[in-house]
Amino acid sequence: MLELAVRLASLLRRPIDYIDPHQRTLTPLDPGVIGAMADHPAFRAPINRAIAGQIGFDAVPIDDAMLDRSRRAPSSRLAVVILTAPMDEVAHVARLLAAAILSRRIRGTVMKADRERIRDALGDGVFEFAIQEVPVLYPALCELDLTSRNELLQPTGEHGTVGQIEQLGMAALGGFLDSTEPSLAGPFALRLPPATNYAGRTSAVGRFETIHCDQIVKIVRRRQQSWSAIID
Q: How far apart are the first and last CA of the chain?
Protein backbone atom coordinates (compact mmCIF):
# COMPACT_ATOMS: atom_id res chain seq x y z
CA MET A 1 0.00 0.00 0.00
CA LEU A 2 2.86 2.40 0.73
CA GLU A 3 4.17 2.12 -2.81
CA LEU A 4 0.72 2.79 -4.25
CA ALA A 5 0.37 5.88 -2.06
CA VAL A 6 3.78 7.13 -3.16
CA ARG A 7 2.87 6.56 -6.81
CA LEU A 8 -0.36 8.52 -6.48
CA ALA A 9 1.33 11.35 -4.59
CA SER A 10 3.99 11.60 -7.29
CA LEU A 11 1.33 11.70 -10.01
CA LEU A 12 -0.58 14.49 -8.29
CA ARG A 13 2.49 16.57 -7.41
CA ARG A 14 4.36 16.16 -10.71
CA PRO A 15 1.73 15.52 -13.41
CA ILE A 16 4.00 16.82 -16.15
CA ASP A 17 6.18 13.72 -15.67
CA TYR A 18 3.20 11.50 -16.49
CA ILE A 19 0.97 13.14 -19.07
CA ASP A 20 1.55 13.04 -22.81
CA PRO A 21 3.45 16.12 -24.05
CA HIS A 22 0.51 17.05 -26.29
CA GLN A 23 -1.72 17.24 -23.20
CA ARG A 24 0.42 19.97 -21.60
CA THR A 25 -1.94 22.90 -22.06
CA LEU A 26 -1.14 26.19 -20.33
CA THR A 27 -2.12 29.18 -22.45
CA PRO A 28 -0.27 30.98 -24.00
CA LEU A 29 2.69 28.60 -23.63
CA ASP A 30 3.12 25.72 -26.06
CA PRO A 31 3.87 22.20 -24.76
CA GLY A 32 7.57 22.42 -25.58
CA VAL A 33 8.04 25.58 -23.55
CA ILE A 34 6.08 24.10 -20.66
CA GLY A 35 8.33 21.03 -20.65
CA ALA A 36 11.49 23.15 -20.71
CA MET A 37 10.27 25.31 -17.83
CA ALA A 38 9.31 22.25 -15.80
CA ASP A 39 12.87 20.96 -16.17
CA HIS A 40 14.20 24.08 -14.44
CA PRO A 41 14.35 23.72 -10.63
CA ALA A 42 12.99 27.23 -10.05
CA PHE A 43 9.90 26.66 -12.20
CA ARG A 44 9.22 22.96 -11.63
CA ALA A 45 6.82 23.26 -8.68
CA PRO A 46 4.71 26.20 -9.94
CA ILE A 47 4.45 24.74 -13.45
CA ASN A 48 3.29 21.40 -12.05
CA ARG A 49 0.73 23.12 -9.82
CA ALA A 50 -0.58 25.13 -12.76
CA ILE A 51 -0.79 22.06 -15.00
CA ALA A 52 -2.51 20.04 -12.26
CA GLY A 53 -5.14 22.75 -11.92
CA GLN A 54 -5.56 23.17 -15.67
CA ILE A 55 -6.11 19.47 -16.41
CA GLY A 56 -7.93 18.62 -13.20
CA PHE A 57 -5.33 16.37 -11.62
CA ASP A 58 -5.66 18.33 -8.41
CA ALA A 59 -9.29 17.16 -8.21
CA VAL A 60 -8.72 13.42 -8.75
CA PRO A 61 -10.98 11.79 -6.12
CA ILE A 62 -8.61 9.67 -4.05
CA ASP A 63 -10.55 8.96 -0.87
CA ASP A 64 -10.64 6.46 1.97
CA ALA A 65 -13.04 4.19 0.11
CA MET A 66 -10.69 3.91 -2.85
CA LEU A 67 -7.68 3.27 -0.61
CA ASP A 68 -9.66 0.60 1.21
CA ARG A 69 -10.49 -1.12 -2.09
CA SER A 70 -6.82 -1.00 -2.99
CA ARG A 71 -5.99 -2.80 0.24
CA ARG A 72 -8.51 -5.54 -0.50
CA ALA A 73 -8.64 -5.96 -4.27
CA PRO A 74 -5.77 -6.72 -6.67
CA SER A 75 -7.85 -5.21 -9.49
CA SER A 76 -7.95 -1.84 -7.70
CA ARG A 77 -4.22 -1.97 -7.07
CA LEU A 78 -3.68 -2.74 -10.73
CA ALA A 79 -5.79 0.28 -11.69
CA VAL A 80 -3.43 2.54 -9.72
CA VAL A 81 -0.41 0.94 -11.35
CA ILE A 82 -1.87 1.46 -14.84
CA LEU A 83 -2.32 5.14 -14.07
CA THR A 84 1.18 5.65 -12.66
CA ALA A 85 3.55 3.19 -14.37
CA PRO A 86 6.10 4.28 -17.02
CA MET A 87 4.44 4.48 -20.41
CA ASP A 88 6.68 1.86 -21.99
CA GLU A 89 5.37 -0.64 -19.43
CA VAL A 90 1.79 0.53 -19.96
CA ALA A 91 2.21 0.14 -23.74
CA HIS A 92 3.50 -3.42 -23.31
CA VAL A 93 0.51 -4.42 -21.19
CA ALA A 94 -1.79 -2.70 -23.70
CA ARG A 95 -0.33 -4.84 -26.49
CA LEU A 96 -0.91 -7.96 -24.41
CA LEU A 97 -4.56 -7.03 -23.87
CA ALA A 98 -5.06 -6.15 -27.54
CA ALA A 99 -3.51 -9.50 -28.50
CA ALA A 100 -5.83 -11.31 -26.10
CA ILE A 101 -8.95 -9.53 -27.32
CA LEU A 102 -8.01 -10.04 -30.98
CA SER A 103 -6.83 -13.61 -30.43
CA ARG A 104 -9.55 -15.25 -32.53
CA ARG A 105 -8.94 -12.90 -35.44
CA ILE A 106 -5.17 -13.30 -35.19
CA ARG A 107 -5.50 -17.08 -35.17
CA GLY A 108 -7.77 -16.81 -38.19
CA THR A 109 -5.36 -14.67 -40.22
CA VAL A 110 -4.31 -16.82 -43.16
CA MET A 111 -1.98 -14.73 -45.29
CA LYS A 112 1.65 -14.99 -44.21
CA ALA A 113 2.31 -11.30 -44.92
CA ASP A 114 -0.62 -10.27 -42.71
CA ARG A 115 0.54 -12.53 -39.87
CA GLU A 116 4.04 -11.08 -40.09
CA ARG A 117 2.70 -7.51 -39.91
CA ILE A 118 0.73 -8.42 -36.80
CA ARG A 119 3.73 -10.20 -35.27
CA ASP A 120 5.93 -7.13 -35.86
CA ALA A 121 3.33 -4.80 -34.32
CA LEU A 122 2.76 -6.93 -31.23
CA GLY A 123 6.43 -7.38 -30.45
CA ASP A 124 8.57 -10.27 -29.34
CA GLY A 125 6.58 -13.10 -27.79
CA VAL A 126 3.18 -11.36 -27.82
CA PHE A 127 2.06 -12.94 -31.10
CA GLU A 128 2.76 -16.39 -29.63
CA PHE A 129 0.90 -15.35 -26.49
CA ALA A 130 -2.16 -14.54 -28.63
CA ILE A 131 -2.28 -17.85 -30.47
CA GLN A 132 -1.08 -20.23 -27.75
CA GLU A 133 -1.88 -18.92 -24.26
CA VAL A 134 -5.03 -16.87 -24.72
CA PRO A 135 -7.35 -19.66 -25.96
CA VAL A 136 -6.40 -21.81 -22.97
CA LEU A 137 -5.92 -19.33 -20.13
CA TYR A 138 -7.87 -16.17 -21.00
CA PRO A 139 -10.65 -17.12 -23.44
CA ALA A 140 -13.20 -14.70 -21.97
CA LEU A 141 -11.21 -11.72 -23.20
CA CYS A 142 -11.99 -12.67 -26.80
CA GLU A 143 -15.62 -11.78 -26.05
CA LEU A 144 -14.63 -8.10 -25.77
CA ASP A 145 -13.74 -7.69 -29.44
CA LEU A 146 -16.21 -5.27 -31.05
CA THR A 147 -14.17 -4.67 -34.20
CA SER A 148 -15.78 -5.56 -37.50
CA ARG A 149 -15.01 -9.12 -38.60
CA ASN A 150 -14.84 -7.87 -42.19
CA GLU A 151 -12.30 -5.18 -41.33
CA LEU A 152 -8.66 -5.89 -42.09
CA LEU A 153 -6.49 -5.59 -39.01
CA GLN A 154 -4.24 -2.53 -39.28
CA PRO A 155 -1.48 -3.12 -36.71
CA THR A 156 0.24 0.22 -37.34
CA GLY A 157 -1.07 3.59 -38.37
CA GLU A 158 -0.25 5.57 -41.47
CA HIS A 159 1.37 8.99 -41.54
CA GLY A 160 2.09 8.94 -37.82
CA THR A 161 -1.40 7.98 -36.69
CA VAL A 162 -2.01 5.46 -33.94
CA GLY A 163 -2.38 1.86 -35.13
CA GLN A 164 -5.40 -0.31 -34.47
CA ILE A 165 -3.60 -2.62 -32.05
CA GLU A 166 -2.34 0.28 -29.94
CA GLN A 167 -5.78 1.90 -30.05
CA LEU A 168 -7.47 -1.29 -28.93
CA GLY A 169 -4.94 -1.95 -26.16
CA MET A 170 -5.41 1.50 -24.64
CA ALA A 171 -9.19 1.15 -24.99
CA ALA A 172 -8.94 -2.15 -23.09
CA LEU A 173 -6.98 -0.50 -20.30
CA GLY A 174 -9.65 2.19 -20.17
CA GLY A 175 -12.39 -0.43 -20.01
CA PHE A 176 -10.61 -2.10 -17.13
CA LEU A 177 -10.38 1.24 -15.29
CA ASP A 178 -14.05 1.98 -16.01
CA SER A 179 -14.98 -1.29 -14.30
CA THR A 180 -12.58 -1.22 -11.36
CA GLU A 181 -11.79 2.40 -10.48
CA PRO A 182 -13.86 4.71 -12.70
CA SER A 183 -12.42 7.86 -11.16
CA LEU A 184 -9.02 6.96 -12.65
CA ALA A 185 -10.27 6.43 -16.22
CA GLY A 186 -10.38 10.17 -16.97
CA PRO A 187 -6.89 10.97 -15.66
CA PHE A 188 -5.49 8.03 -17.65
CA ALA A 189 -6.70 9.72 -20.86
CA LEU A 190 -4.22 12.53 -20.23
CA ARG A 191 -1.34 10.08 -20.48
CA LEU A 192 -2.25 9.25 -24.08
CA PRO A 193 -1.76 11.14 -27.37
CA PRO A 194 -5.03 12.74 -28.51
CA ALA A 195 -4.93 10.57 -31.68
CA THR A 196 -5.49 7.46 -29.55
CA ASN A 197 -9.25 8.19 -29.52
CA TYR A 198 -9.52 6.93 -25.96
CA ALA A 199 -12.92 8.61 -25.62
CA GLY A 200 -14.31 6.12 -28.15
CA ARG A 201 -13.20 3.07 -26.18
CA THR A 202 -16.70 1.74 -25.54
CA SER A 203 -17.17 1.21 -29.27
CA ALA A 204 -13.88 -0.70 -29.51
CA VAL A 205 -14.21 -3.10 -26.59
CA GLY A 206 -17.17 -4.67 -24.82
CA ARG A 207 -18.24 -4.05 -21.25
CA PHE A 208 -15.88 -5.57 -18.71
CA GLU A 209 -17.34 -8.04 -16.24
CA THR A 210 -15.61 -9.55 -13.22
CA ILE A 211 -14.29 -12.49 -15.23
CA HIS A 212 -12.57 -10.16 -17.71
CA CYS A 213 -10.96 -8.10 -14.96
CA ASP A 214 -9.80 -11.26 -13.18
CA GLN A 215 -8.20 -12.58 -16.36
CA ILE A 216 -6.37 -9.29 -16.92
CA VAL A 217 -4.99 -9.48 -13.38
CA LYS A 218 -3.78 -13.00 -14.20
CA ILE A 219 -2.09 -11.79 -17.38
CA VAL A 220 -0.23 -9.12 -15.44
CA ARG A 221 0.84 -11.62 -12.80
CA ARG A 222 2.30 -13.91 -15.46
CA ARG A 223 3.58 -11.40 -17.97
CA GLN A 224 4.51 -8.14 -16.18
CA GLN A 225 6.61 -9.11 -13.20
CA SER A 226 7.40 -5.56 -12.07
CA TRP A 227 3.66 -4.96 -11.65
CA SER A 228 2.92 -8.36 -10.16
CA ALA A 229 5.03 -7.56 -7.11
CA ILE A 230 2.86 -4.51 -6.44
CA ILE A 231 -0.62 -5.92 -7.00
CA ASP A 232 -0.09 -9.15 -4.96
A: 10
Contacts of 104 (CB under 8 A, 6+ apart): 142, 145
**Contact present, 39 and 8 (Cβ < 8 Å):** no
Amino acid at 100: A
Extended strands (E) in the chain:
none
Q: DSSP assignment, residue 140?
A: G
- Distances in Å between the Cα of 194 and the Cα atoms of 40, 111, 199 are 26, 32, 9
What letter does residue 192 receive in the DSSP assignment?
S
- Residue 150's pLDDT is what? 57
- The pLDDT score that the predictor gives to residue 34 is 83
**pLDDT of amino acid 162:** 46
Pick from 92, 127, 125, 73: which is nearest to 226 by CA? 92
The per-residue pLDDT for range 11-53, each reduced to its tens digit, is 888 888 888 888 887 777 777 788 888 888 888 888 888 888 8
SS3 assignment, position 62: coil
Neighbours of 22 (CB within 10 A): 12
